[in-house]
């Protein structure tokens, strides 16, 4: 029997957190003399009252008894329900949009996708943009915690490879959850503050610096302006590149770094592959722009690095019209988005780890074809990759591309152009941010998409963010029976 | 040590076969009073002399000693070398094209891809179009034999699942090769004759009927006219649907049928899935055309069935401009091309069998997530699917889509538009036929593609046709060392 109480209890507490977080945009709008502060005040009251009563009603149980199935349910429920709470102020106050648009924006925020249905960001109350940034920041933090604590136990997508670094069962998770979570939150806060300070030093005002720091560290990509990073060309782009990369490495390494292991980051096999592949891609893109498009070297290098990193890490800021770089450059950027960052970061998509496992598995398969009698065990980082992990990784990857295809077909069924359907599927399933095509507005906003397309994207963003299997498992009969 | 003699011997014999086959187009052009017969006469002489001397020089060995590694080498060498022979008359006589175009056309023929670089097919000597048909027919026959006899032993892409139906080692293959091959050739010839007779009865002249029968049964898709099947609208399209489907089912079933097992075809789990999925897709496409595009029912059903089946089976005939059906219909057709026919047919792409294995593997992975302690073994057609088969199938599928992506990126690097690059990659790797985009000519011909793009496509058609791994394995150091 599934016990609804742990799910209700945690959801209730998180709803309270959402309500408390609304006090920041409320304060900003109040200070700005913008009466939109009332929307946040009412929403905060609703969230805290609602969350409080659900938490109290569900509190009568032992959290350490949570089963793996309840963890699955909780994970999906969190990302389905909290955006409902996050959408309330967007409906009560400005931009005063439909349920679909408000929920789309909140899901896009909390899944750190960053696709927006709000054109005219510059004209919104500053509190609204701060709230959008906070949604992404909270969503990013949430996913790091889930990836580090839950997914390895849930054995989703090969994450059980990291079990030995963490925990074996949920029973052992909880005692250390608070420890690890505290370390994670510290690292996340410190990096966000450093990012905001850097952005501030490079010319953003404190509001722009704060919101962009929130959406950089969460690889979310929401901006305070329709121009996105085109408004902050130059050094700020280099700074963003560095912080987007930091947001895409395993957060556990920062804790190890803080604990004195200064080389933890550089010894990580994922981080090394991530940086190496990215360096090659930036080199190729820069050469392409310099030699094929005759761009000068510095902007070519800067825009290559910025746009590649922002799409690769799934942050999704824009600084130039990348489609003007031609189909080759676009193909590189498209593929980069399908790689993604490292596991247990705020990054999305398939992720470096899985490609490393696939590479080792492919090599050992080829070896097997040549000499069927030689048994070779694929290894990663000196450790043997279990059968189980390879199976999960392969299943995940196949399912990822299958989902991408199904979502693209579903989107094209709503009447969208092929290019829009494909890039919108890509941006949703891999939680990237921008889409390209005739239906996308001049500011990159997707408000003109059909309502059905928005709901397909909402579903796709959720399953993409929750590593597909964590959601799909809820659709099996065995889950509810077992 | 790799022994080059078995490879040389078989290649020599096959070159002689090619030379003998050139006598047909020679005779046709001679009867037409077209002096292009001389190109075929000279080419035939060259092929027979060359093949004869290589075969004689390599004959001094025991064919039963052929190792698996030599089988790999032979398979790739066959599809690389024979198109060189097949290209000779296209350079010596009409259409008198460059080495690139002649080899492209011959590879596109023998891999049964059917992409053409010849605009103006109607103006070519009839012998040239007959030769193009023969190239596809021979290529289709070759692949059925390789798929049935070699791939299971080579353990490529999960084909070892079919080993128990066939043979365990190459040593056991050869004694039965002649038996099985004879049965295959009989079935292939009978079906081709039946197809030609049907086409003839439905309005084609005997030359059109013959060439189209050769390219239908091989799921090749070359036509005698730039209009392709638009020139034969109506009942001939229904006939083509039936014969394209017959060309995409496991050929071993026809042998069993001839041996008295009348239900062999209908009991095949691949065939059942193939027909079921295809029926759904035709239904959806027809409904889309009737309700969304307001087309009348009969042509909507006929054009849906014809265009879906021609792309799904990888035949690649054209009858209407399918891009005019909108992005949803186009997405369905694009996906259909990535499914493909059944194993051990002339069909290409990923194939039904692999999707069935993937489906079972996914289901058992999901079950495992829910109840980690329950061990479930995926089964297909009542038989257990071995670990080994699942690994191979997953590796193949991942590699297939990876190759598709890499080829699309490489093609876009030559400066092609994204749409052209993607559809040309799709048509090459899955051996389908048509591509769509600004660089494709009005007749569907790809003569205007950059030379570099043509060579990328040649490489892609070859590895796609030879199930990727059979070629990739040649690029491993272990293969040459072992
Ligand atoms: K994003
Ligand atoms: K074809």
Automatic annotation (TrEMBL), chains A, B:
The keyword Membrane applies. It is found in: Cell inner membrane; Cell membrane. Keywords: Cell inner membrane, Cell membrane, Ion transport, Membrane, Metal-binding, Potassium, Potassium transport, Transmembrane, Transmembrane helix, Transport. Low-affinity potassium transport system. Interacts with Trk system potassium uptake protein TrkA. It comes from the Bacteria. K(+) binds at residues 112-113, 220, 315, 431. The chain crosses the membrane at residues 7-28, 40-59, 71-92, 134-154, 185-207, 227-252, 273-291, 322-344, 393-413, 455-480. This is Trk system potassium uptake protein. Belongs to the TrkH potassium transport family. InterPro entries: ATPase_P-typ_TM_dom_sf (IPR023298), Cat_transpt (IPR003445), TrkH (IPR004772). GO terms for cellular component: plasma membrane. It is a multi-pass membrane protein. PANTHER family: TRK SYSTEM POTASSIUM UPTAKE PROTEIN, TRK SYSTEM POTASSIUM UPTAKE PROTEIN TRKG-RELATED. GO terms for molecular function: metal ion binding; potassium:chloride symporter activity.
């Amino acid at each position: 029997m599934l016990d609804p109480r742990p799910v209700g209890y945690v959801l209730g507490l998180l709803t309270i957190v959402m309500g408390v977080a609304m006090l920041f945009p409320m304060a900003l709008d109040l200070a700005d003399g913008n009466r939109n502060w009332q929307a946040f005040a009412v929403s905060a009251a609703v969230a805290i009252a609602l969350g409080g009563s659900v938490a109290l009603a569900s509190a009568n149980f032992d959290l350490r008894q949570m089963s793996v199935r309840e963890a699955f349910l909780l994970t999906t429920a969190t990302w389905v329900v909290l955006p409902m709470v996050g959408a309330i102020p967007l409906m009560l106050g400005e931009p005063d949009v439909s349920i679909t648009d408000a929920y789309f924006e909140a899901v896009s925020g909390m899944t750190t996708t960053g696709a927006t249905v709000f054109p005219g960001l510059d004209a919104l109350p500053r509190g609204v943009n701060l709230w959008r940034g906070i949604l992404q920041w909270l969503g990013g933090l949430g996913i790091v915690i889930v990836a580090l604590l839950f997914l390895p136990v849930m054995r989703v997508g090969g994450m059980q490879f990291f079990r030995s670094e963490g925990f074996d069962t949920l029973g052992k998770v909880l005692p250390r959850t608070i420890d690890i979570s505290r370390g994670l939150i510290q690292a996340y806060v410190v990096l966000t503050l450093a990012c905001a300070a850097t952005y501030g030093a490079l010319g953003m005002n404190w509001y722009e610096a704060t919101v962009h720091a929130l959406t950089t560290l969460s690889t979310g990509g929401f901006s305070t302006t329709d121009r996105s990073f085109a408004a902050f060309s130059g050094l700020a782009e280099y700074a963003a590149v560095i912080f987007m990369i930091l947001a895409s490495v395993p957060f556990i390494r920062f804790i190890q770094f803080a604990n004195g292991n200064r080389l933890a980051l550089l010894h990580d096999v994922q981080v090394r592959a991530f940086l190496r592949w990215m360096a090659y891609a930036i080199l190729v893109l820069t050469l392409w722009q310099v030699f094929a498009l005759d761009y000068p070297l510095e902007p070519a290098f800067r825009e290559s690095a910025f746009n590649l990193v922002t799409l690769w890490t799934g942050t999704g800021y824009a600084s130039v019209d990348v489609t003007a770089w031609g189909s080759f450059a676009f193909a590189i950027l498209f593929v980069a988005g399908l790689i993604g960052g490292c596991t247990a970061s705020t990054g999305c998509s398939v992720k470096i780890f899985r490609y490393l496992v696939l590479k080792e598995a492919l090599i050992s398969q080829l070896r097997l074809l040549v000499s069927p009698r030689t048994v070779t065990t694929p290894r990663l980082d000196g450790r043997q990759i279990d059968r189980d992990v390879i199976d999960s990784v392969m299943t995940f990857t196949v399912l990822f591309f299958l989902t991408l295809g199904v979502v693209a077909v579903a989107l094209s069924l709503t009447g969208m152009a092929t290019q829009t359907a494909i890039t919108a599927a890509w941006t949703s399933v891999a939680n990237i941010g921008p889409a390209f095509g005739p239906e996308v507005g001049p500011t990159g906003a997707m408000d003109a998409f059909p309502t059905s397309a928005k709901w397909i994207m909402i579903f796709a963003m959720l399953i993409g963010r929750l590593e597909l299997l964590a959601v799909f498992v809820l659709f099996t009969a065995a889950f509810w029976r077992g």
